[in-house]
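Internal ticket - ligand job 264, NAP:
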Amino acid sequence: MELGIKNRFALVCASSKGLGFSVVESLLEEGCNVLMTSRNLDNLNNAEKIINQKKFTGVLNKFECDLSKPEEIINLYNHAISLTDRIDILVNNCGGPKPGNLEDVSSDDFDYAITQNLKNTIDLTKLILPLMKKNFWGRIVNIASSSVKQPIDNLILSNITRSGLISFAKTISNQYASFNILINNVLPGRILTDRIKEIAKQKADKENIDINIVIDQLSDDLPIKRLGEISEFGPLVAFLCSEKSSYITGNSIQVDGGLIKSLF
Ligand SMILES: NC(=O)c1ccc[n+]([C@@H]2O[C@H](COP(=O)([O-])OP(=O)(O)OC[C@H]3O[C@@H](n4cnc5c(N)ncnc54)[C@H](OP(=O)(O)O)[C@@H]3O)[C@@H](O)[C@H]2O)c1
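stdout (structure tokens):
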């Protein structure tokens, strides 16, 4: 299927690794020009090396930016508009908040998670929406979590901030749909990335067992009986960023191997 987004400009946040990186690859494959970001230049360079080994038609740019810092959100926006006069696609993503239950996290941890995973996403989106409105075309996809449908034990900061993000997305999707700006969320379940390994390691250390045992156990309650691969994530996001998704907005779609057992 031709997605119809060749030469569209896409800003993909937190994308040197994991799910964000998968989105970068999928959009480059469709011929988008992509701005890839993360906090660490080495990680960005490694990601660029992997991408350069493949023959994508889209052009890749990269930018170092810590999305937990409000001033760096503005730097990112300024850098993006120095490259292009149109940002057609925004994929909001960030590192996951610190794991833990209520008693494990401090008030500062809450503030940090709310800034990094909610407030700064809202600020960046607010900066970019006027460009999309002017061009009468835009796609915004937020990478959230299956936890917005079913909170995950030991991830209270993630559960709280992502629910807020979904509510933000639904609210603005109603306001911007008539400008041909479509806003959706993708909800990963258990896709084997550094984040899942970090959470598994924390559990393994706590229970004094091997991390591989914990990772194996993570498949047990999945109908599909395996963890997801990074390459299984980006294609859905690329579809939602495309011409072909022209009647889909305000939705949240799981990529979770059947983890969430509810009907909706
Ligand atoms: N994997 C899953 O199945 C799953 C399930 C539910 C939810 N999620 C959520 O989806 C998001 C992406 O997860 P992932 O599994 O892809 O994680 P990951 O493999 O750890 O990758 C995170 C990416 O974000 C960048 N990053 C982290 N903190 C950042 C910050 N403050 N500013 C800018 N970039 C930052 C990292 O690069 P640098 O280190 O170079 O900055 C890296 O490129 C996370 O919020 C995660 O909690 C994932």
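Auto-summary: The chain is about 45% helix and 15% strand. The domain at 9-190+230-255 is CATH 3.40.50.720 (Rossmann fold).
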